[in-house]
Amino acid sequence: MAPRDTYLLTDVRTRHHDGLVDVAVEHGRITAVGPGLDRRTPAIDGRGQTVLPGLVEPHLHLDKAMLDPGPDPDAGLDAAVARTAERKSRFTPDDVRARATDVLRRAHAHGTTRVRTPVDVDPAVGLSSLDVVLDLRAEWAGRVELQVVPFPQEGIASRPGTRDLLVEALRRGADVLGACSYAEDDADACRDHVRDVLDLAQHHGVPVDVHADFAAGSDDPRHDLAADIAAMTSAAGMQGRVVLGHATTLAGLDPDARGRTADALAEAGVGVVVLPPTDLYLVGASAPVRELRAAGVRVAYSSNNVRNAFTPFGTVDLLDAALLLGHMQGVDLDTLLDMGTVDAAALLGDDHHDVTPGARADLVLLDAPDAATGLLDRAPRTPVAELPTGASRR
Ligand SMILES: [Zn+2]
To answer: pLDDT value at position 285?
Structure first.
């Protein structure tokens, strides 16, 4: 059943109003928020719970979730890539569909309404996983909006044939172009990789999502490219349309170098998505969120990988990632809530994701007296559009 798109949500709390308010929704958009709104539509009783804009996962791998993580959890990033590549060679469309659907069900149950998903594309797996995820994008429309990102995890120059697959993925309707800026043999080849993806994306009119700088410091020049990527973004005219995932290298730079990089990212409008579960498991740190935000960089967080060699744990609850980040870096609850909704949506191209007139109404009820308590409790969440309507109170 398609979720309803016109209704009045009554008696809810928001993060920005005192007391109980109603939220009017028409044709999937919020038209009014305030106390005692007129009843002109079917009503949904919010029962005093807290309404949030839907949670947003700006970086969640569906195709390689729920795999055996293997016997060697301390082996690091290269081993995780290799182990997953071996497992990938045995993927079938049915297998990918079953695991991806499991992840989407969990995300949806935890109040996530939008997901950007990188899908591995290489000569071995071809576009078979991508085709499955494009089908799921249609199947889940109205519940979880998917942005599909063909992703060259194993490189472009180092895996001949991958570039043609990326172009074909865009032709088949992928939303965003992926890059993996540490996946080539040396730093120059890595820069060429990013430049090529930026040019391709510019040509095809899509944004870019880069796995970048996934190390503990600047020892490997392939993992110290964020400032270069910022410069290349501006040179390609892609300001505001590029997001870096991970960027953990920043955490290990000296303060001056870190500040210069943060300023470069801010100036080029390059966003950063930290992946606390994976960052902590494989590197021991995430990019410095408060420092990046203070420099003017848009930052969000996401679950990234779930139950595989990159991250052996996970329930696909974005609030787990939020609280993990809070533990690691002392980010306050209000900022965590902004990052998981407003900021993450902005990185996906929607600057108006909030409980406010004009915004798209992918609303979620949090069974808590306020949003901060709901975050701390990881309170149960329900998509508002799927709740039953009832009789008018007034
Ligand atoms: Zn990733």
So the answer is: 94
Looking at residue 316, the DSSP 8-state letter turns out to be S
CA of 277 to the centre of ligand 1 (A): 11
pLDDT at residue 393 greater than cutoff 70: no
282 alpha carbon to ligand 1 midpoint, in Å? 12
C-alpha 61 – ligand 1 centre gap (Å): 6
Q: What values do phi and psi take at 389, rounded to 5?
A: -90, 155
Residue 218 has pLDDT above 90, yes or no: no
From the CA of 245, how far away is ligand 1's center (Å)? Answer: 7
DSSP 220-245: SGGG--HHHHHHHHHHTT-TTSEEEE
d(CA 145, CA 266) in angstroms, rounded, equals 27
Name the residue type at position 271.
Answer: G
Q: 210 CA to middle of ligand 1, Å?
A: 9
Q: 95-147, pLDDT tens digit by residue? A: 999 999 999 999 999 999 999 999 999 999 999 999 999 999 999 999 999 99
Q: Is the dihedral of CA 325, 326, 332, 336 positive or negative?
A: positive
Q: Across residues 39-57, what is the average pLDDT?
A: 93
Using the predicted structure, report yes or no on whether residue 394 has a pLDDT greater than 50.
no
Is residue 291 exposed (0-12), middle (13-18) or buried (19+ Cβ within 10 Å)?
A: middle
For residue 305, report the distance from its CA to the centre of ligand 1, in Å. Answer: 7
Q: In CATH, what class is 7-53+354-386? A: mainly beta
Please report the pLDDT score of residue 75 as a whole number: 72
**Burial class of residue 96, CB neighbours in 10 A (0-12, 13-18, 19+):** buried
Domain boundaries, the chain: 7-53+354-386, 55-347
What angle (nearest 5°) sits at the alpha carbon of residue 195, between those of residues 189 and 198? 145
CATH value of 55-347 in 3.20.190.10, 3.20.20.70, 3.20.20.140, 3.40.140.20:
3.20.20.140
Q: Which residues contact 254 (CB under 8 A, 6 or more apart)?
A: none
- In this prediction, residues 323-345 reach a mean pLDDT of 98
Write the pLDDT tens digit of every residue in 22-43. Answer: 999 999 999 999 999 987 779 9
Q: What does DSSP assign to residue 62?
A: S
